[in-house]
TrEMBL record:
<keyword id="KW-0408">Iron</keyword>
<dbReference type="InterPro" id="IPR029119">
    <property type="entry name" value="MutY_C"/>
</dbReference>
<feature type="domain" description="HhH-GPD">
    <location>
        <begin position="42"/>
        <end position="191"/>
    </location>
</feature>
<keyword id="KW-0004">4Fe-4S</keyword>
<dbReference type="InterPro" id="IPR044298">
    <property type="entry name" value="MIG/MutY"/>
</dbReference>
<dbReference type="GO" id="GO:0006284">
    <property type="term" value="P:base-excision repair"/>
</dbReference>
<protein>
    <recommendedName>
        <fullName>Adenine DNA glycosylase</fullName>
        <ecNumber>3.2.2.31</ecNumber>
    </recommendedName>
</protein>
<dbReference type="Pfam" id="PF14815">
    <property type="entry name" value="NUDIX_4"/>
</dbReference>
<dbReference type="InterPro" id="IPR023170">
    <property type="entry name" value="HhH_base_excis_C"/>
</dbReference>
<dbReference type="InterPro" id="IPR005760">
    <property type="entry name" value="A/G_AdeGlyc_MutY"/>
</dbReference>
<dbReference type="Pfam" id="PF00730">
    <property type="entry name" value="HhH-GPD"/>
</dbReference>
<dbReference type="InterPro" id="IPR003265">
    <property type="entry name" value="HhH-GPD_domain"/>
</dbReference>
<keyword id="KW-0378">Hydrolase</keyword>
<dbReference type="InterPro" id="IPR011257">
    <property type="entry name" value="DNA_glycosylase"/>
</dbReference>
<dbReference type="InterPro" id="IPR015797">
    <property type="entry name" value="NUDIX_hydrolase-like_dom_sf"/>
</dbReference>
<dbReference type="GO" id="GO:0034039">
    <property type="term" value="F:8-oxo-7,8-dihydroguanine DNA N-glycosylase activity"/>
</dbReference>
<comment type="function">
    <text>Adenine glycosylase active on G-A mispairs. MutY also corrects error-prone DNA synthesis past GO lesions which are due to the oxidatively damaged form of guanine: 7,8-dihydro-8-oxoguanine (8-oxo-dGTP).</text>
</comment>
Amino acid sequence: MNMKPIPSLFTSTLLTWYSKHGRHLPWRTTQDPYAIWLSEVILQQTRIAQGTSYWLRFMEKWPHVEDLAAATEDEVMRMWQGLGYYSRARNLYQAAQQIVTLGQFPNTLSDIKRLKGVGDYTAAAIGSFAFGLQVAAVDGNFYRVLARYFGIDTPMNTPEGVKLFAALAQEHLPEGAAADYNQAVMDFGATLCTPKAPQCTRCPLAETCVARRENKVDQLPVKLKTLKVLTRNLSLYYIRWNGKTAIHKRGSGDIWQGLWTVPESEHLTPRLRKAAVLLQKGVKHVLTHRILLADFHLLSPKEKPALPTDFIWIDEKDIENYGIPRLMEKLISLAQPLQREGIRP
């Protein structure tokens, strides 16, 4: 029978460790809910190093939520460019407008969760960091640390698992120190109790960790495989005509909703497709739910080609003013130097 670790030992050990080894991050020096919310949205699916630079740029350009709400969606999407998961940027922009309409940043858990794109974790993080709410912010680090320390093999991505881990995280929440507790578990999971190659020999919880004692560290947490990754093939065409190029804004429900992209095969006539030059074949781009394999083409027609009505023609040099996905950046980086070198297919 597993020995149940002493709850106060788990929490107090983590807080002691955090006081010495916690990461120094710029949004931890403020209780401004806007700055904290912005960091949480940016850091979803983003590494700290990359996310920090984006957070600093956002805060410099839009230091207050009113500034962000007054921007255009294109401006926000352009600033977000390179972070991926662009629904986060759209939700961020819409939520900023919600907050301005409310007249203040919501300060209860239920009201914070009403913001566009804010779920249980993000609401708990904002609530505890900005307003001192007594709530555990359960993210992937929490699942991993709790599963290993308490020896829990209930799958984390099942209704039972979600409920179990949320209750356990809340049970060990120290009174009046929710922010430090949440940040301690995040940092502990990110630097010591990592998904791969955890630093068990340096872990202050090693002696009472069930997974360590039972040699199950690499088996926990348990997550059921539910995601099916699909492969999608694309043919993308950078068109150069009279110093201009053609782009259009992707519609709702698309993988690049709200971003600007170049024409694909279905937008061109067979004659135009045949006239294009292949720049690179099978460029791989990995998204959460699919893998994209793209063929890059350059087309320089003598006459302006007919395209669907939602396409616009812009000066080539102005494309940097439009929010485009990373895959388009790769295509442009290949196509535009040909113009500077005077090469014409």
